[in-house]
Each structure stands twice: as C-alpha cells, then as structure tokens.
Amino acid sequence: MTTAHVILGGGGLASLLAERLLSDGERPRLWAREHASLPPGVEALPTGPGGALTPCFAAGAALYLLPGAPELPSVAACQGPARVVLVHAEAAPAWVTLANDPPQFIASVAPLFGPGAREGAFGEAFWTPTLAGEEPELDGDPDVAVHFAYTEDVVDGLARMGRAPLTAAGHWRLPTTAPLSPRALARQLAAPLGLPGGIRAAGGRWSQLLGRRPAAAAAVTPTDGGEPFRATFGGRATPLPAAARRTAAWAHATFSGAQA
C-alpha cells in the first residue's frame, strides 16, 4: 500500500479518481486550478501565482498524471513518488524529471463517455442539444466503428494501478467497449431517457475527433517508444446497457438545467 495518492490533472476524470480513492480509504490529494471544486474530503495541493503547482509529494506516493496536468520542469527536489500512473497520449511525461526513476504504469484510454465526462464527443457537446430535443453536430462519419471507454471502468483501472505490485509496471490498456459506431453509442446513451439520440455528421474524420484509430486497426497499439501495450488491466468493461443507464441519469442531472 502507498502512503499517499497525488492526482495532477483537471476535469471530471480527476475528480472521479479522487472520489474513488477516498471511498477506498486512501488519502488522495488533487491539483486543480483556482476555483475548481473538489470532492468533499479530498485535499487540494497548494498552487502559486497563476495556478502553478507547488510540488509537494510524500515519499512513496502514487503520482497520477491525467489530462490537464500542470507542467513541472522537475519534481526532483521532492521526496519522490514510488510510482507514476500515466494516461498515455494525454499527459505526456516528457516534461517530468523524476530523481528516483519510479516505475511507470502507462494506461491507454479510449475516448470517454460516462459520468464526469464533460469534454469530448459524448460530453456536453452531445448532451446539451440531445436533452433539448436537437441533434448534435459532430465531426466525421458517425458510422465508423471504434472503441469507447466508460469513465467508471477507467477510474477503476487507474485506482488499481496505484496499488498494484510494482512488478506489474508497464504499458496497459484500460477496459473498452466492443467496437461500435458513434451513432450506435449515441442511441444507446439516449435510450434510457426516451430520446432518439440522433447525430449529424459535420465533415472531418471521427478518428481525429476521438483521438484513436478505427477499431479494425491492429489490436496492439505501440507507444511512442515502440513498446506495445499489454492486455487489458483491471476488470471487465461494464456492460453497455448498464453504463448507458448510469450515463443518462448523470447527464440528465448535470445538463438538464442548461435548457432552462
């Protein structure tokens, strides 16, 4: 077990991970920009002028680098984390210098949907017009099959990485759905609310918007250094009908007020 969990990053994924670790009896600390809300019981890391992070990592901590993590020229002056959990291609490690070269758990995460996913193709851009009875306009071909990741599955995988044996460090995938098209996912997500979940193509390519290749591509995605990701880390993906129900309930509670 680690002595602390330090989360660097913003948005719903960071808050969900902090809440999960807190519910597991851990002591998460979260960096967030000024005025960002923190889950009750989660400690905020101190920030300096302009919201820059003041490094403060306990020895032996698990350090999570998520999308929106602040740029740190070095954390070598700190006591140092025991491990780094990195969301691949979203929180690039190139700007981090770690004196003790801790083991890295690098997670490949597919485009997100689910509670807390405000950004991306199936965040606010999808839910605000959908709840208003309109069809959101999204870039590209909505019938190209790709993988998606449910936020609760991603958080579960990251939390497990933060406490896994150090011998398991390496490149991993986090659970994803079976391949399905954005149009099919839109219908699944809207169905629990009795909505059609239609979308309109606006040109461009879905692979660019979603940040991933079509599902028909090779099953193993190499990292920038050429090392392939291992098999999926953590449990099985939540069945899509259950994930859709939870996502719809969250979206209705979160975005319905925007229509008032």
Please give the largest β-sheet.
Answer: 7 strands, parallel
The coarse silhouette is: globular
**What series of H and E elements makes up the topology?**
EHEEEEEEHEEHEHEHH
Sheet-strand content, in percent, reads: 5-15%
Q: Please give the count of helices.
A: 6
| Total beta strand runs | 11
Strand order of the largest sheet: 3-2-1-4-5-6-10
Any low-confidence stretches, pLDDT <50, length ≥5? 89-95, 204-209, 211-229
Euclidean distance between termini CA atoms: 47 Å
Q: Could you report the average pLDDT, rounded to the nearest whole number?
A: 77
Proportion of helical residues: 10-25%
Rg estimate, integer Å: 19 Å
Structural class: alpha/beta
Descriptive report:
The structure is a single chain. The protein contains 6 helices and 11 strands. It has 260 residues and is an alpha/beta fold. The strands form 3 sheets. A 7-stranded parallel β-sheet has the order 3-2-1-4-5-6-10, covered by helices on one side. A two-stranded parallel ribbon has the order 7-9. A two-stranded parallel ribbon has the order 8-11. Strand 1 (5-8), helix 1 and strand 2 form a beta-alpha-beta unit.
Give the topology.
Blueprint: E1 5-8, H1 11-23, E2 28-31, E3 43-44, E4 62-65, E5 83-87, E6 104-108, E7 112-113, H2 124-131, E8 137-138, E9 149-150, H3 151-161, E10 170-173, H4 182-190, E11 200-201, H5 206-210, H6 240-255
Parallel strand pairs: 1-2, 1-4, 2-3, 4-5, 5-6, 6-10, 7-9, 8-11
Helix pairs in contact: 1-3
Features:
alpha/beta; 260 residues; two-stranded parallel sheet
